[in-house]
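Z., the sequence and structure:
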Amino acid sequence: MLVVMEGEETWRMFLRLPGEGRILEARLSGLNERQLRGLAQMLGDWLAEVDGEARQQRLESVTSQALAIRLSHLAPDGLDSHQLTRLREGELVIRLLPGHWALTVYLAVPSADGTRQWLSIGPVSALEPTPISLLLLVLLIMLGVLAAIIYLIVRGVEARLARLELAAGRIAGGRLDTRVKVDGGGFIGRVGMAFNAMAAQVQSLLRSQQEMIRAVSHELRTPVARIRFAMQMVEDMTEDPAIRRQLRGIDGDIEELDQLIDEILTYARLDSGIVNGANLERSRIDCRAMAMRVIDTLAPLHAHLQLELAPGPDVEVLADPRYLQRALQNLVANACRHAQSRVRVQVTEETRLVRLDIEDDGPGVPDTERQMIFKPFARLDDSRTRRSGGYGLGLSIVQKVMAWHGGSVVVDDSQELGGARFSLLLPIVPPKRA
C-alpha cells in the first residue's frame, strides 16, 4: 500500500491486490473520519501478515510526508485508561488532538511471538477544506438576507416617520386637529404619542387664547358704547366751543378704539381657522376692478396723495372677494400712511401666479425688519401718533388671508418710486372640468 498526497486536497492510494499483479488506485478529495478508520484497519491487517524486517519494509513503503505513519513497541501517550483498554482488546481508537482540530488513529498490531506493536496514523485534519466558491456563495446569501431584513426594518421606520412629517406639516398649516396614528410600541410609537400629546396641548392653548381675545374684544364694545352715549349727552348739554373741541377728540379716540377691536376680532377669526382654505367662498375676481374700488375708497381720505392704478390687461383670479379685497385695502392704506406724494398699484399675470404690487415713495422698510412687520402688533417705531396710525395688525391679517389662499405676501424696495413695495402673490387655480 502507498498513500500519496497531491496538492492540498487530493489523496492517492495504491494497493497491490493479493495473488495478482494488478494495483488498485483510489483518488480521494479528502480523508474524513470514516475513511481514516478504514485506512487504519486495512493498513493494520496488511502489516499483521508479516513480521520483523518485512513489516518494517512495508511500513517504510507507505510512509510519506503527507501522512505520518508510525509503528512503536511502546503504548501511545495521551490516552486514558479506558482508551488503552479498548486498544489492547484490538479496537481502533481515534483521538482528537486538543487545539489542533486534527485526528490521530491508534491500532494494536499483533506479532508472531505474541507481543504487539502500536500503529499510529496522523495527525490528519479533522475538517475537510471548504471550496472558496461555496464560501463566497454562502457569504453572498447571508449578506442578501441581512440586506433584505435591514431594508424591511428601515422601510417600516421610514413610513412611520413620513406619517409624522405629514402630520407636522398639517399642524404647521393650521390644521391643529391632526393626529398621528400610533401602531405598536417602540421608539417611533412613543414619539407618535408624544407628538399627539404636544398637538393636543398646542390646540388647547391656542383655543383658550383665541376665545379670550374674542371675549375681551366683545366685552370692550359695551363700555365703549356707554362712553359714546355719555359723550353725546354731554355734547347736547353744552354749547361751549372748548368743551365741544374736547368731545370731538374723545369721539376720535373712541373711533380708533372701535377700529382696533374690529382688527383684533378679524385677526382672531382668521387665526382660529374659522376661515380656511376649504371654507373660503372662492369666485372669479377681476383684480383690476377690485384694485380700482380700493383706490376709490381710500382716495378721498388721502387728498394730498396721488393714488393710481398702473395700466395693463384685465387679470382674473380665483379667490374669496371679501378677504382678498380686505388684504389689498390694508396694504394700500398702509402705503398711504407712509407715502410722501404717490401710491401706485399694479396687477400683472405671470406663468403660475397673479401678482398685485403696491408701491409708495415713502421711507421704505429696512431689510432687518421685513420679517418682523408681519407679526401681530409689530411696528417699525413705537409712535402711536395719528400721522402714522395703524395698530400693527393690518399686515398680520394680510399674511393670514394670503396663507389661506395658498399664496404669500412679500416686501422689497420699489424700483420706480423709491419706497416700499408690498406684493400679493396668488397661485393661478385652473378651472374645474365639467
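Residues 274-278, 382-387 have pLDDT under 50 and may be disordered. The radius of gyration is 50 Å.

Let me know what you think.
H.
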